[in-house]
Amino acid sequence: MTKQQEHYDVAIIGGGAAGLTSALYCGRARLKTVLFEKALPGGLATYTSEIENFPGFPEPIAGTDLMKLFEKQAKRFGVVMKLTAAKSVALCGQEKLISTFRTDYTAKAVIIASGGKPRLTGAAGEERFLFDKGISFCATCDAAFYTGKSVLVIGSGDAAIEEAIFLTKFAKRVQVSVIHDTGILDANEVAKEQAFGTPNLEFIWNAMVQEFRGEERLSQVVLKNIKTGELQPVDVDGCFLFIGYLPDTDLFKGQINMSTQGYILTNDQMETNLEGVFAVGDVRDKALRQVATAVGDGAVGGVAAERYLAETAYLEQQLFTSNKPAIVYCWNPTDPACRTFMTEIERIRMKYGDTIKLVTIDMYKSARIAAKLGITQFPALALIRNRTVCYRTTDCCEETAAAIEREIIQH
User: Please, which residues have CB within 8 angstroms of residue 124's CB and are 6 or more apart in sequence?
Assistant: First the structure.
């Protein structure tokens, strides 16, 4: 069966806070933008029952509610949302390819915002009970199912403790398995204080998961005391894992440079090692992973993609479509040497008239365009013929001007 094909300016892989922010910026820049999300828009933020540290929201807001606002705003600017997974990608070259089950999508720029995926314990029996069989990763999503029941939370960080507190509003008994000594949690001080003051919240200290047991659904979690080796079976109706996340980057391995942990490496413009490919949010190698930092990444990535497309279009339209040879003068108008050599450039332009094309690039404003021609300093000259840079120099003097003239005459 022949696949359908669709073409876009920008394709965004991942619909969390970072991806939705990039989509908003790209859509607002009037770029034809498509966003792929394999689950529901909002990403990991939707796993959080209350977000208290996102600027502009003085009262706590549910992660799902905040992400619905993000999605609504992106759609307002014409962003196309595809609730499907990208099965494969080809990111090299000017046209990037994203393939889903039924359709191939091409885009001039790609923003990777695939975020993270929950870390598993690796304990025996775990795979049997994932998601709808007793092991969950989202208290906001699944708490109501456990009304009046017993649940176990694995983890002691912010997410684990905050979600455990949330679960006490539904479950009759909430136990938390903590790998540390009595009284030690990895959560922030506010969450700690709330947790220790919650009546139906119990802690099992110095514990790690040994095995998950049950028939059709999970019914028991066996914990092991890391100091004594003693095994403790805990009867449960469900278990929530909050032990961190891993970058969801398997799709891009072999194409994008990554850290040893699998996070994508970028510069401060969210650029990866591939031209026209950007990465934003939790999928990046960075220090802090929060909704607020994801939004910052998404904004920078969206603007960077817009600039990349504008620069690519400029080069194509101004330099690579003309039948005439093009002289490119990279300069800074505030630099005396640049202004002096401009007289030579003007002399050449006047002498050869319409037989050549002259393009000036202000290095202060458009250094990235010059860099695409292999020029990183000013003043500099390049001669382009037949879409190829056939002459380039930073030695701008009368002899250089004469050399450019000879190149023009010879061809």
Answer: 210, 211, 212
Evaluate the omega torsion of the peptide bond into residue 233 and state whether it is cis, within 30 degrees of 0: no
Four-point Cα dihedral 261, 262, 268, 274, nearest 10: 150
Residue 388's domain comprises 320-410
Burial class of residue 288 in the structure, from the number of CB atoms within 10 Å of its CB (0-12 exposed, 13-18 middle, 19+ buried): exposed
Do residues 110 and 250 both lie within one domain? Answer: yes
Q: What is the pLDDT of residues 111-131, one digit of tens each?
A: 999 998 889 999 999 999 987
Residue where a domain stops, chosen among 221, 241, 261: 241
| Confidence tier at 287 by pLDDT (50, 70, 90) | confident
3-class secondary structure per residue, 13-31:
ECCEHHHHHHHHHHHHCCC
**pLDDT confidence band for 1 (50 / 70 / 90):** low
What mean pLDDT value characterizes the chain?
A: 92
| Residues 309, 15, 258: CA angle, nearest 5 degrees | 70
> What is the per-residue pLDDT across 198-240, written as a single tens digit (0 to 9) for each?
988 999 999 999 999 999 999 999 999 999 999 999 999 999 9
| Whether the model pTM is above 0.90 | no
- Whether residue 102 is found in the same domain as residue 131: no
Specify the CATH number for the domain of residue 265: 3.50.50.60
More confident residue, 332 or 324: 332
Domain check: are 345 and 279 in the same one?
A: no
The secondary structure of residue 376, as a DSSP letter, is -
Number of domains within the chain? 3
Task: Say whether both 259 and 198 belong to one domain.
Answer: no
Single residue among 210, 241, 272 that ends a domain in this structure: 241
- Dihedral sign of CA atoms 263, 266, 271, 274 in order: negative
- Are 133 and 233 in the same domain? yes
Question: Is 224 in the same domain as 363?
Answer: no
pLDDT bucket at 154, cuts 50 / 70 / 90: very high
Indicate whether 159 and 61 sit together in one domain.
Answer: no
Residue owning tokens 């514990």: 207
